[in-house]
Model the fold of this input.
Amino acid sequence: MSTMNRQVRALGDSASNINNYFTTGYKAKEMRFYDTMEGMITQETRDFNSGVPRKTDRELDFAIDGVGFFEVILPDGTYAYTRNGSFKLGPNGELLSPQGYPLSNTSQEKIEDTKFSYDELASGKLGVLNAGLTAQHIKVPTGSGVTLQPNGELETDDGTPLGRVTIMTFPNVDGLQEIGNGIYLPTEQTGRVEEVRTGEMNGQTHLLQGYLEASNTSIVQDMNRLVELNTSVKSQMKVMKLLDQMQEGLTSTITRNL
Done:
Protein backbone atom coordinates (compact mmCIF):
# COMPACT_ATOMS: atom_id res chain seq x y z
CA MET A 1 0.00 0.00 0.00
CA SER A 2 1.42 3.43 -0.96
CA THR A 3 2.04 6.15 1.60
CA MET A 4 -0.74 8.27 0.14
CA ASN A 5 -3.23 5.39 0.28
CA ARG A 6 -2.35 4.84 3.93
CA GLN A 7 -2.90 8.49 4.69
CA VAL A 8 -6.22 8.52 2.84
CA ARG A 9 -7.37 5.59 5.02
CA ALA A 10 -6.19 7.44 8.12
CA LEU A 11 -8.20 10.47 6.93
CA GLY A 12 -11.26 8.24 6.74
CA ASP A 13 -10.73 7.01 10.30
CA SER A 14 -10.47 10.54 11.68
CA ALA A 15 -13.56 11.60 9.75
CA SER A 16 -15.44 8.57 11.11
CA ASN A 17 -14.42 9.45 14.67
CA ILE A 18 -15.72 12.99 14.25
CA ASN A 19 -19.00 11.81 12.70
CA ASN A 20 -19.56 9.40 15.60
CA TYR A 21 -18.76 11.82 18.40
CA PHE A 22 -22.35 11.57 19.68
CA THR A 23 -22.74 7.81 19.05
CA THR A 24 -23.32 5.82 22.26
CA GLY A 25 -20.42 3.51 23.11
CA TYR A 26 -18.46 4.35 19.94
CA LYS A 27 -14.77 3.47 20.07
CA ALA A 28 -12.29 5.71 18.27
CA LYS A 29 -10.35 4.33 15.30
CA GLU A 30 -6.70 5.00 14.63
CA MET A 31 -4.45 3.98 11.76
CA ARG A 32 -0.98 3.08 13.01
CA PHE A 33 2.13 2.89 10.86
CA TYR A 34 5.09 0.57 11.58
CA ASP A 35 8.51 0.39 9.94
CA THR A 36 9.63 -3.21 9.47
CA MET A 37 12.41 -5.03 7.63
CA GLU A 38 9.88 -5.68 4.86
CA GLY A 39 8.81 -2.06 4.63
CA MET A 40 6.01 0.06 6.06
CA ILE A 41 2.94 -1.78 7.34
CA THR A 42 -0.33 -0.36 8.65
CA GLN A 43 -2.73 -1.53 11.32
CA GLU A 44 -6.16 -0.12 12.09
CA THR A 45 -6.81 -0.22 15.82
CA ARG A 46 -9.60 0.87 18.15
CA ASP A 47 -9.33 2.56 21.48
CA PHE A 48 -11.45 0.38 23.78
CA ASN A 49 -10.99 2.60 26.82
CA SER A 50 -14.24 3.67 28.45
CA GLY A 51 -16.06 6.80 27.42
CA VAL A 52 -17.58 9.11 30.03
CA PRO A 53 -20.91 7.84 31.51
CA ARG A 54 -23.70 10.25 30.54
CA LYS A 55 -26.72 10.46 32.86
CA THR A 56 -30.09 9.82 31.17
CA ASP A 57 -32.29 8.62 34.09
CA ARG A 58 -33.87 6.08 31.73
CA GLU A 59 -34.17 2.74 33.53
CA LEU A 60 -33.28 0.64 30.46
CA ASP A 61 -30.10 2.60 29.78
CA PHE A 62 -27.05 0.72 31.09
CA ALA A 63 -23.43 1.85 30.93
CA ILE A 64 -20.23 -0.15 31.41
CA ASP A 65 -17.66 1.82 33.36
CA GLY A 66 -14.51 -0.22 32.75
CA VAL A 67 -13.61 -3.15 30.51
CA GLY A 68 -16.04 -5.54 28.84
CA PHE A 69 -19.04 -5.76 26.54
CA PHE A 70 -22.74 -6.52 26.71
CA GLU A 71 -23.45 -9.90 25.12
CA VAL A 72 -26.29 -10.05 22.60
CA ILE A 73 -27.60 -12.83 20.37
CA LEU A 74 -27.78 -12.39 16.59
CA PRO A 75 -30.65 -13.91 14.55
CA ASP A 76 -28.49 -16.94 13.61
CA GLY A 77 -27.76 -17.68 17.29
CA THR A 78 -24.24 -16.23 17.25
CA TYR A 79 -23.07 -14.33 20.30
CA ALA A 80 -21.98 -10.76 19.54
CA TYR A 81 -20.69 -7.94 21.71
CA THR A 82 -21.45 -4.23 22.09
CA ARG A 83 -20.82 -1.27 24.38
CA ASN A 84 -24.14 0.38 23.50
CA GLY A 85 -26.41 -0.17 26.50
CA SER A 86 -29.47 1.68 25.22
CA PHE A 87 -31.87 -1.25 25.57
CA LYS A 88 -35.57 -1.42 24.75
CA LEU A 89 -38.42 -3.86 25.27
CA GLY A 90 -39.50 -6.22 22.51
CA PRO A 91 -43.09 -7.27 21.80
CA ASN A 92 -42.86 -10.05 24.40
CA GLY A 93 -41.04 -7.97 27.01
CA GLU A 94 -37.54 -9.21 26.12
CA LEU A 95 -34.63 -6.78 26.51
CA LEU A 96 -33.28 -5.84 23.07
CA SER A 97 -30.29 -3.88 21.82
CA PRO A 98 -30.90 -0.78 19.64
CA GLN A 99 -30.59 -3.11 16.61
CA GLY A 100 -33.20 -5.50 18.04
CA TYR A 101 -30.83 -8.24 19.27
CA PRO A 102 -31.83 -9.97 22.54
CA LEU A 103 -29.59 -9.42 25.55
CA SER A 104 -27.99 -12.68 26.63
CA ASN A 105 -29.21 -14.16 29.94
CA THR A 106 -26.36 -16.54 30.76
CA SER A 107 -26.15 -17.89 34.27
CA GLN A 108 -22.99 -17.22 36.28
CA GLU A 109 -22.53 -20.89 37.16
CA LYS A 110 -22.48 -22.01 33.54
CA ILE A 111 -20.08 -19.24 32.56
CA GLU A 112 -17.67 -20.41 35.25
CA ASP A 113 -17.78 -23.96 33.91
CA THR A 114 -17.54 -23.11 30.21
CA LYS A 115 -15.14 -21.06 28.07
CA PHE A 116 -15.68 -20.49 24.36
CA SER A 117 -12.92 -20.50 21.80
CA TYR A 118 -13.14 -18.77 18.44
CA ASP A 119 -13.52 -22.12 16.69
CA GLU A 120 -16.49 -23.02 18.91
CA LEU A 121 -18.14 -19.66 18.34
CA ALA A 122 -17.61 -19.84 14.58
CA SER A 123 -18.60 -23.48 14.18
CA GLY A 124 -21.86 -24.61 12.68
CA LYS A 125 -22.78 -26.16 16.03
CA LEU A 126 -23.11 -22.76 17.67
CA GLY A 127 -26.87 -23.02 17.98
CA VAL A 128 -26.56 -26.25 19.99
CA LEU A 129 -23.78 -24.72 22.08
CA ASN A 130 -25.84 -21.62 22.85
CA ALA A 131 -28.91 -23.67 23.70
CA GLY A 132 -27.00 -25.38 26.46
CA LEU A 133 -25.95 -22.08 28.00
CA THR A 134 -28.85 -19.70 27.54
CA ALA A 135 -32.17 -20.96 28.82
CA GLN A 136 -34.07 -17.80 27.89
CA HIS A 137 -33.78 -14.14 27.14
CA ILE A 138 -34.25 -11.55 29.85
CA LYS A 139 -37.94 -10.62 29.82
CA VAL A 140 -39.65 -7.83 31.74
CA PRO A 141 -43.31 -8.26 32.79
CA THR A 142 -45.73 -5.75 31.28
CA GLY A 143 -45.93 -2.57 33.32
CA SER A 144 -43.06 -3.49 35.61
CA GLY A 145 -40.04 -1.35 36.33
CA VAL A 146 -36.54 -2.82 36.54
CA THR A 147 -33.58 -2.36 38.86
CA LEU A 148 -30.02 -3.26 37.87
CA GLN A 149 -27.91 -4.41 40.79
CA PRO A 150 -24.14 -3.72 40.86
CA ASN A 151 -23.40 -7.41 40.18
CA GLY A 152 -25.60 -7.39 37.06
CA GLU A 153 -28.68 -9.02 38.59
CA LEU A 154 -31.84 -7.54 37.11
CA GLU A 155 -34.99 -7.38 39.24
CA THR A 156 -38.52 -6.00 39.03
CA ASP A 157 -39.71 -3.26 41.36
CA ASP A 158 -40.90 -5.86 43.86
CA GLY A 159 -37.58 -7.75 43.82
CA THR A 160 -38.53 -10.57 41.44
CA PRO A 161 -35.37 -11.83 39.67
CA LEU A 162 -35.39 -11.42 35.89
CA GLY A 163 -31.91 -12.63 35.01
CA ARG A 164 -28.36 -11.41 35.01
CA VAL A 165 -26.64 -8.93 32.72
CA THR A 166 -23.22 -10.53 32.22
CA ILE A 167 -20.28 -8.49 31.00
CA MET A 168 -17.80 -10.35 28.81
CA THR A 169 -14.36 -9.61 27.45
CA PHE A 170 -11.42 -11.19 25.59
CA PRO A 171 -7.67 -11.39 26.22
CA ASN A 172 -7.08 -9.44 22.99
CA VAL A 173 -9.97 -7.06 22.27
CA ASP A 174 -7.99 -5.55 19.37
CA GLY A 175 -8.77 -8.78 17.49
CA LEU A 176 -12.53 -8.12 17.52
CA GLN A 177 -14.22 -7.61 14.15
CA GLU A 178 -16.83 -4.88 13.88
CA ILE A 179 -19.84 -5.84 11.74
CA GLY A 180 -21.48 -2.41 11.95
CA ASN A 181 -23.35 -0.23 14.45
CA GLY A 182 -20.89 -0.95 17.24
CA ILE A 183 -21.46 -4.73 17.15
CA TYR A 184 -18.36 -6.91 17.38
CA LEU A 185 -17.62 -10.57 16.69
CA PRO A 186 -14.69 -12.61 18.05
CA THR A 187 -11.94 -13.80 15.71
CA GLU A 188 -8.97 -16.14 15.95
CA GLN A 189 -6.96 -13.29 17.47
CA THR A 190 -9.29 -12.46 20.37
CA GLY A 191 -8.74 -15.56 22.47
CA ARG A 192 -11.37 -17.16 24.71
CA VAL A 193 -14.31 -15.16 25.96
CA GLU A 194 -14.23 -14.44 29.68
CA GLU A 195 -16.67 -13.01 32.19
CA VAL A 196 -15.84 -9.68 33.83
CA ARG A 197 -16.75 -9.47 37.50
CA THR A 198 -18.86 -6.42 38.32
CA GLY A 199 -19.96 -4.86 41.57
CA GLU A 200 -17.05 -6.22 43.59
CA MET A 201 -14.79 -4.22 45.87
CA ASN A 202 -11.89 -2.76 43.86
CA GLY A 203 -13.36 -4.25 40.69
CA GLN A 204 -12.23 -2.88 37.35
CA THR A 205 -15.73 -2.71 35.87
CA HIS A 206 -18.96 -1.24 37.19
CA LEU A 207 -22.49 -1.34 35.78
CA LEU A 208 -24.53 1.85 35.89
CA GLN A 209 -28.30 2.14 35.42
CA GLY A 210 -29.75 5.33 34.01
CA TYR A 211 -26.53 6.15 32.16
CA LEU A 212 -25.15 5.68 28.65
CA GLU A 213 -21.48 5.58 27.71
CA ALA A 214 -20.43 8.50 25.53
CA SER A 215 -18.01 7.91 22.66
CA ASN A 216 -14.33 8.12 23.58
CA THR A 217 -13.36 10.19 20.56
CA SER A 218 -11.47 13.46 20.90
CA ILE A 219 -12.76 16.16 18.56
CA VAL A 220 -9.66 18.32 19.01
CA GLN A 221 -7.24 15.45 18.39
CA ASP A 222 -9.10 14.18 15.34
CA MET A 223 -9.53 17.66 13.83
CA ASN A 224 -5.79 18.30 14.20
CA ARG A 225 -5.00 14.90 12.67
CA LEU A 226 -7.47 15.61 9.84
CA VAL A 227 -5.75 18.89 8.99
CA GLU A 228 -2.26 17.35 9.12
CA LEU A 229 -3.19 14.37 6.96
CA ASN A 230 -5.11 16.52 4.48
CA THR A 231 -2.11 18.83 4.08
CA SER A 232 0.24 15.87 3.60
CA VAL A 233 -2.01 14.20 1.02
CA LYS A 234 -2.38 17.46 -0.95
CA SER A 235 1.41 17.93 -0.98
CA GLN A 236 1.95 14.41 -2.30
CA MET A 237 -0.71 14.94 -4.97
CA LYS A 238 1.13 18.10 -6.12
CA VAL A 239 4.39 16.17 -6.34
CA MET A 240 2.69 13.38 -8.31
CA LYS A 241 1.17 15.96 -10.67
CA LEU A 242 4.59 17.56 -11.21
CA LEU A 243 6.16 14.15 -11.91
CA ASP A 244 3.40 13.40 -14.44
CA GLN A 245 4.06 16.71 -16.19
CA MET A 246 7.81 16.00 -16.30
CA GLN A 247 7.15 12.55 -17.74
CA GLU A 248 4.82 13.97 -20.38
CA GLY A 249 7.41 16.59 -21.33
CA LEU A 250 10.16 13.99 -21.58
CA THR A 251 7.97 11.69 -23.70
CA SER A 252 7.10 14.60 -26.02
CA THR A 253 10.78 15.55 -26.42
CA ILE A 254 11.80 11.95 -27.24
CA THR A 255 8.93 11.62 -29.76
CA ARG A 256 9.96 14.82 -31.60
CA ASN A 257 13.55 13.62 -31.95
CA LEU A 258 12.75 10.16 -33.30
The chain has a mean pLDDT of 78. Residues 219-256 form the longest helix (38 residues).
